[in-house]
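FORM 7B - TANDEM STRUCTURE REPORT

SECTION 1: FIRST PROTEIN
SEQUENCE AND TOKENS:
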Amino acid sequence: MSLFAFAPARGPRWQLALQAALGIAVPIAAMTLAGAPALGYIAASGAFTVLHLGALPVVERARALPLVGAALIASAALGVCASVNALASSVGLVIVAIVSAALAFGFRLGPPGPLFFVLVFGLSAHLVGAGGVDGAVYLAAFATGCLFSYLLSLTPLVLPRVRAKNARPVREILPGPRLSADGRMLLVRVVLVTAVGVLLGAVIDQPRTYWVVGSGIAVIGVAAARRTAFQRGVHRMLGTVIGAGAYALLAALHPAGLWLAALLGVLQFTIEIVVVRHYALALVFITPLVLLLAGAATGTIGSMDVALERIVDTLAGAVLGALSGVLHPRSAAPRE
């Protein structure tokens, strides 16, 4: 995972990238035309559904992705319930992080692991807690986005050769629950990063705690190795700083409406093409996408104060995630 080299290609990803791009762009465009862009931003986060199990045949994704979507909706529902106060949000964040990590590692979900369940919880608690949207409306919009994202993942089934493939039972697609030695170590790291991240968030700014924890969990990933932890930490810090600069340039253009939908779609497509080959480069696109989407949802788009906060949060989380890698023996190699 060198900063100066790309990992080998793992096969074509344009199909997954296109589904992810449409999953984020279409809801925003549709709801903008309907006069309710705020709901479009919420529904667009349902595109996280299609980012899971991307290496599986479509017929198997059709069976397993509903479980992922249901877990994301449950995370959002818990976030809405925990939005009542800071203590509930912090406790809920710890619970969601640990439970989602245990399930992701125990059932070998693969990348991106528990990351988006944590981010969905935190974003839901933050937006609803800020009073920007009613909890029930938020959940309905998010669930609709998850459903739309799932339907996009099924589109290749229109081809007979895709439908003709045999699909394994779900219990074979997601075998478990069983935590391997690597899985147990990854779970311990998530627990430690979450606990310290929540305490650190209380010092920095409680509503931003989920981003600190999410950044740490993103660095942990799904590979149990000390070297990988440090490399991903460096990639995340460098990519985020450069990505914040990209956000500043894009925000200066004041994107809105259909133009914003198209821009986010292009960014998401690029991310899915690049992320498996160069993590730092992917973060150059991930950072402005997240800042633009969150800014649009909260009405703070273009705010460099928000961008600076995200950099601070990401650096704090990345350091925590990287440092947690010392728990692995020096000789450990990725076995996930």
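SECTION 2: SECOND PROTEIN
SEQUENCE AND TOKENS:
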Amino acid sequence: MNEYLSGVRVIRLPEPQRHTDVTLTFLVGSRDETLRTIGVAHALEHLVMHTVRDLPIEMNAEVDLLATTFVASGSPARVGEFLNRLCRALAGPPVDRLALEARVLTAEEGNVAHPVTAFLLNVRYGAKGPGLAWLEGAGYDGLTPEHVTSFAKKWFVAANAVLQVAGPFPEDLALELPTGPVPTRVPPAERSFDVPVVVGHGIPAAGVLLRMPTDDDVRLPTLAIMTLRGRIEEKCRFVGGHSYEIDLDLVAAPDGATDWVVYAEAREGSEDAVSRAVVAALMDLAENGPTPSELAHQIARAEERLAAGDPEIRRAFSNAMNQLCGDPELPPVDTTRLAAVQPSDIAAVLEQALSGAIGYGEESTLHVWQEAGFTLAPACPVIAELPAGRTFKPPLTARAFVKEARSMLWVRTDDALVLRDDDGIHQVRWDEIAGVMRSPDGMTLVLGANGCTIPVDPDMFRGATAVVDELTTRVPADLWFDESKLSSDD
């Protein structure tokens, strides 16, 4: 039977210990922000942790793409005080510290995801949901107290939390969180591809985003991803010596599916070799599956994870989080079927995911992906033809001295702003503007929810002032922001 305290789902871990360990998880992360409020979850986490900093126990907190987590370990009484004070701070965030904390957050330079993951999610989702991990928005100094308090009131409610407790249960635990239903989350629109594509940028690494189905009773999709990661690590680190960090990330996708990103960083000069290793691992595993020794190793690792701790407790937490976001429960792992998984099973899952894969390579290595059958794609969507409308060209001086300006053309239509540049024809509809950023140098950047960015620069094309005036009337004031004045060097 499910246990609740003050509306918070509680999972007790049967650990025979005198001290108490707690993990309070809220199903809200950076994907639930907006372009205008990027970083608000991290700011809130810093503000509320400041209120418990004087407690003499171990504590920490983290915000990632999907969740915000608070952990503490100590005597039952101190841990209970931590939870009670933390929840009161979430119900009434101490926003008077926001300006000071903005400088600390900027100096921290924390990322909710690895740059390769963030870039690929931006390609998939644009300037919304998980795709926001790639963008900076207004910066921490652009957040207002209202941004923080409204975010906390919506997402940090008791119904959106799960508390795990190991050891003695703290007495007088109140968990005075805001009340309200589990917030609804509308899945963001996404780009999908019918063929494997590759996108490029300057990050010295290689990686791939794969859409995988819901895990079954042997966790076959997860097993396939772990096998791919293991093959890449073997080739990039232990054989080639090209990489140190090889890892993976995931975000929930519609209909219970998952977007997995597997990536490998590249030391200087090894970018080509790392791309070749990632491409070769993916293509071979999708065609032939793992070797018997590779598969046996991954199955043994899965069995070891099941043997460590209580698998039913872990499944209870996963199912509690799935329930919050409306996903189906995970069935128990069938160890007999797990041990019987064949290389062809792994190949089938990866072959299916390969058909719509989004690869990433450092720009000088894109030919490696294309040779393997990946189609080169722009980082944001482009349209086939320039629409009819009022056109703007860069002034003659810009075309004379700036090579990129010679191919540029802006079009203003009744429905959208359009820019033609070397990458193609980009369109941002008036009703799909995610934000408008003002730069100190006079440039205005129009950021579309689809991931396209259109600069409106008086120095780059005639008529820019009139377009800015129109943006002022069309775009709500709360979507405008100034470029952040803070940097990690300040």
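SECTION 3: OBSERVATIONS ON SECOND PROTEIN
The longest strand covers residues 205-212.
The mean pLDDT is 92.

SECTION 4: SIGNATURE
Preparer initials: ____
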